[in-house]
Specification:
- Chain B: Keywords: ATP-binding, Nucleotide-binding, Transport.
- Chain B: It holds the Pfam family ABC_tran.
- Chain B: GO terms for molecular function: ATP binding; ATP hydrolysis activity.
- The complex is a heterodimer.
- Chain A is mainly alpha-helical.
- Chain A contains ten helices and no strands.
- In chain A, helix 3 runs parallel beside helix 6 (135-162).
- Chain B has eleven helices and 15 strands.
- The longest helix of chain B is centred in the middle third of the chain and has 18 residues, at 165-182.
- The chains are: A mainly alpha, B alpha/beta.
């Protein structure tokens, strides 16, 4: 366990001096603009309107793409500088390295969600909402979106670890994310499509009344958890056996 | 019996049926500088990657510090510093942060970073991003990283690759000083014998995955034959005179070359030449260089 925290601290150093921070802010900023432009209408909690509008772009497109971009990013500097050799000849187990890398990705996604929350509050403040903020809904939405990203992050981490190319894992990720726009309309497929889960999980219940959006959170979590276990285990096993 | 630091038994690595490393028995004693020699693609790096646990052997065992690598990998790695092939670095970090990223994992005091940077003379450049470093500087940074944990065993794969002559000299002197100063055992690989000659005590020559020679440099040089070269005033006549004495030589550019002459034969020839009125300008012994022997060994396989 101590090794894990040591690797984590080393990873934090590497990531903190990289340009990953630029990536994190893009989606919250764009979502904030969308939130500012959202028009609340009478009789419905304006926070839910803003949240529902912001979630579309963020949850459907940016968040799943970021879940692929972050792993590619934190593996990139190992691939380009031959860092794997240097890292794996240190007294560390490969599982600990894998786990530390995954924790970093999960952490970056969490930061992104928090910035999204800040963006939502800013949008509400600019629009001058006086209603109390529905914290329960907001928290469920942010956490659900984050959690639904973990399987994607696990898969992309596995791919990024094995391919030294930066673009190839991203291409996989984007080409699996784009179909979201169609898939979320389908009641039958969307609940089982991992890339659609972030937006489904983030949408406040009853906000979007079509496609797969009315499913309860519990049923989404089955897909999320199942795909997470499969992708995470596959990535870990592959990395442990990999020849460096 | 000297203590063995590295010992491999029948170490083999196969890629698609082809043996990259073929039943290798490697023995390196404590405090030694072991030169691991072979042409490019002979299996040096593959062997080193197996010694460091980066790849799994197809067959055979590895003992390091008297323990099985497969079973005690982490505790063994803790005592090894290494540089594998091209230097590894994080381009977006400066030299200090590069070492800090490693230091956080191995948990040595922070002062160690300045010490190793000083050892490889990078102290002045330590705050620049490493992507702007020359290959030689990156290589030195790699060596600094390998020394960070105060290792008992240092494994350096082609450490002087890409360095300029003065850099090569520095690294060589550094490597030579390690066993004396810190009792570190060094395994250093190269495809250049000349380099090894000035650094290593023991060498192992590998060819197509097989060890074809493993002994001290001294014993390798004993295998070499030597020529006697003479420069005299009348080389043609001298050649005939030598032939009468039973020594067949060659005349080339005014220099007479006689292979494999012993001391009495030389003395007799010189005496006869003087008696016959030749002026003798030079009598030289030309040792066949280790390079020649090396070429012979890697060219023909196990002839020694």
């Amino acid at each position: 366990m101590r090794t894990f925290f040591r690797i984590l601290s080393s990873e934090l150093l590497k990531i903190s001096k990289s340009k990953v921070w630029l990536l994190i802010v893009v989606s919250p900023i764009l979502s904030t603009l969308v939130g500012i432009l959202a028009e609340p209408y009478e009789g419905i909690d304006p926070w839910r309107i803003v949240l529902g509008t912001m979630v579309f772009l963020h949850g459907m497109l940016f968040l799943p793409i970021l879940a692929g971009l972050f792993p590619a990013f934190i593996c990139r500097y190992e691939h380009t500088g031959g860092g794997w050799k240097q890292l794996l000849v240190l007294p560390v187990s490969r599982s600990a390295v894998y786990l530390a890398k995954f924790t970093i990705v999960a952490g970056l996604l969490a930061v992104c969600q928090l910035l999204f929350l800040a963006g939502m509050l800013i949008a509400g403040w600019i629009q001058g909402f006086t209603d109390p903020i529905p914290w329960g809904i907001v928290a469920t939405c942010l956490f659900g979106g984050w959690f639904a990203c973990l399987p994607l992050a696990a898969l992309q981490l596995g791919i990024s670890l094995s391919w030294s190319s930066f673009a190839a894992p991203l291409a996989v990720n984007v080409s699996l994310t784009i179909p979201n726009m169609l898939i979320i309309n389908s009641k039958d497929i969307a609940p089982f499509y991992p890339w659609a889960q972030p937006v489904l999980a983030m949408m406040p219940l009853g906000e979007a009344d079509f496609g797969a959006f009315n499913l309860p959170l519990e049923s989404l979590m089955v897909t999320v958890l199942g795909s997470f276990l499969v992708f995470f285990a596959a990535g870990l096993i592959h990395f442990r056996c990999k020849e460096i | 019996m000297k203590e063995l630091i590295i010992q491999t038994e029948e170490l083999t690595k196969k890629y698609r049926g082809r043996c990259a490393v073929d039943h290798l028995n490697l023995e390196i004693t404590k405090g030694d500088i072991f030169g691991f020699l072979g042409p490019n693609g002979a299996g040096k790096t593959t062997t080193i990657r197996m010694l460091l646990g980066l790849i799994q052997p197809t067959y055979g065992s590895i003992q390091i510090f008297g323990r099985d690598l497969h079973k005690d990998k982490l505790s063994i790695l803790r005592r090894i510093g290494s540089l594998v092939e091209y230097p590894s670095y994080y381009g977006h970090l400066n030299a200090v942060d590069n070492l800090e990223a490693i230091r956080r994992i191995i948990d040595v005091p922070k002062s160690r970073i300045d010490e190793v940077l000083h050892i490889v003379s990078l102290s002045d450049e330590s705050r620049r991003p490493v992507k702007g470093f020359s290959l030689g500087m990156k290589q030195r940074l790699g060596i600094a990283a390998s020394l960070l944990a105060n290792p008992d065993l240092l494994i350096l794969d082609e450490p002087t690759n890409g360095l300029d002559p003065s850099g090569i000299h520095e690294i060589r002197e550094l490597i030579k000083s390690l066993p004396k100063q810190y009792g570190i055992t060094v395994l250093v690989s190269s495809h250049l014998l000349g380099e090894m000659e000035q650094m290593a005590n023991t060498i192992g020559i590998i060819r197509e995955g097989k060890m074809v020679f493993q002994d001290t440099i001294h014993n390798l040089s004993l295998k070499s034959t030597h020529d006697i070269e003479l420069v005299v005033s009348e080389p043609d006549a001298a050649l005939w005179l030598a032939r009468d004495l039973g020594s067949r030589g060659l005349l080339h550019d005014g220099t007479l070359t006689f292979p494999d002459m012993n001391d009495p034969q030389i003395a007799l020839l010189v005496k006869r030449l003087v008696e016959n009125g030749h002026d003798i300008y030079r009598v030289e012994m030309k040792k066949k260089s280790l390079e020649d022997i090396f070429m012979q060994v890697i060219g023909e396989g196990s002839i020694l």
